[in-house]
Amino acid sequence: QSGKTTLAKSTFPNHDYINLELPNLRKAALDDPIGFFDVHNKPLILDEVQRVPELLSYIQVMADEKKTKGHFILTGSHQPRLAENITQSLAGRTGLLTLLPCTLAELRAADKEYSRDENIFNGFMPGIHFNGIEPSLFYGSYFQTYVERDVRMLINVSDQNRFETFVKLLAGRVGQVVNLYSLASDVGVSGTTLASWLSVLEASFILFRLPSYHNNFGKRLIKSPKIYFYEVGLAAWLLGIEKVDQVSRDPLIGGLFENLVVVEALKSRLNRGAQPNLFYFRNQQGLEIDLLFQAGRQIHPVEIKSGMTYDKSFAKNLLRFCDIAESASEPTLIYAGEQDAKVGGVRFRNYKDIYQLVLDWSKL
User: Fold this and answer.
1) pLDDT tens-digit profile of 138-149?
2) Please, what is the end-to-end C-alpha distance for the chain in angstroms?
3) pTM listed for this prediction
4) DSSP string of 262-280?
């Protein structure tokens, strides 16, 4: 529901569009692939192509024969199976793009400006902003459909309630290093099972791990990844937040705001087809930087604070990091306030600027 079909149709208006979710089209493609492509011989958008992975072998042959860039546009929301089949059949013949939900800039361009708490509560799924669906209803239905369809296609979840409990516990640890074995007793399954479930949540684009930056600055580092949700609105729903005015009172407001900012930085990279190159830093002396962006030999450190009031004490970790990291450049404090200031070499910026900041750093 991130807008793949809309984007594909608008970008390639002269392509025929085939939705393989439709049973009659799917049956025709399965029963007679050659006849299917004879009938649909123009450039094609094949939506939900993971539903008929057998087509990829035929597409491979036709792509080699036609040698026309973009003759086939393939989309799919069930990423794990689609990625596996493309890797096997179309290696070296594809360009892969990951489409996450809307960015803050895209919403602003559509005259949809929201407060910090509204952005966290609403999230960024197009259906909420452009189809008028109430967030709690949207995310409740989205998550239930995901568990009942996608998860069951990937793993055998014998106890659906335990899986849902696990996901809600992860939402309560957003922006933190998660110890799966300490969660095992809370969920009632083994740590090995939780590791398997976490991999499924990653592969199906529910959440992602932000890796620790491993260059040794003379200190022992914490190397476990931190957990974030691709959609902060889903994380808020999983925490039981039902109204906008509950966001600021929630004890996890800091983690949710951090999640929002980190995903905006991630979108900035993925939307230009680039590798994320995003990390966090924490050493055993207690120094932590929420976000690092690596651009060549330079490291851009970013601290994230949900507060709306400028406070120079927010920058203390950034200054400590710059003392031990010669490659640190343009340390930046991202917060919910409007004042743009520079104090002691640290720039204070509003959170809506993070997308453009990462984009600018990418071009240096």
Assistant:
1) 999 999 888 777
2) 33
3) 0.90
4) HHHHHHHHHTTT----EEE
